[in-house]
Amino acid sequence: MSQVLQQINESVSYIKSIYKDEPLAGIVLGSGLGSFTSEIKTELEIPYSNIPNFPVSTVEGHSGKLIFGELSGKKVVAMAGRFHYYEGYSAQEVVFPIRVMKYLGIKTLLISNAAGGMNKSFKVGDMMIINDHISMLTVNPLLGKNESEFGTRFPDMSEPYKKDLINKAKLIAAAANYEIKEGVYAGVTGPTFETRAEYKMLAILGGDAVGMSTVQEVIAAVHLGLPVFAMSVITDIGIREEENTITHEEVLQAAKDAEPKLTHIFKALIAQL
Ligand code: HPA
What we know:
Largest sheet: 5 strands, mixed, barrel
CATH superfamily: Nucleoside phosphorylase domain
CATH architecture: 3-Layer(aba) Sandwich
Number of helices: 6
Low-confidence stretches: none
Order of helices and strands: HEEEEHEEHEHEHEH
CATH topology: Rossmann fold
Bound molecules: hypoxanthine
Number of strands: 9
Mean pLDDT: 91
Structural class: alpha/beta
Strand order of the largest sheet: 5-8-7-6-9
Strand content: 15-25%
CATH class: Alpha Beta
């Protein structure tokens, strides 16, 4: 058995030894979006540091635990705190929890993140359904020998974000009277925010929003055959004529402000799974 499969088996066995139910959906919470977890009727929380082979989260605003429980009447597992490539983890480490959640039984993956807006019609606080992505020099987590247990050597990436989930989310947003954007997420490594020239370039290349997560997780999920729904909260506007700087604190605050809407959409979507 390959090393990564063995590691996943160890993590999964440990979790199954203390939590018996099979989660239907996995949820990854982005920067400033962690209080979503208070909506979950929590049955068990497992700090990452207790799980064999799990990386440990280091960024402010990411608490670092798996939360098991019920949301909208469905069993879910949520990652409070994700792993970013810029923290120094390998691409394989970044996607390790996605693989663990798959082997715990999830059938759908929901992802949120904070992102910088580049589409000129976006403003801070907007929510954007991700309908495609561009990997901007993010390292592909599938590099190296293919683990055929996970999936095929050359995964098709024509629909990484499932259309039926996007359509359901749009109906949910419309029913709640939320204005919702839709667009392409450009994934970068960070940790620097982009220069003015880089924001401009990413917009020219077709990006509507830019962020430092998600792309590697989605690639791993597609490899595993997991349907994905992902949403960005626009926490800052990269393309502006006037002088502007971006701080992590501003990003966290903007995410917090938009969180109730994102929570509603995720909850309603999970109810329909
Ligand atoms: N750029 C990259 N990542 C981000 C941004 C941004 O402007 N905002 C939040 N995450």
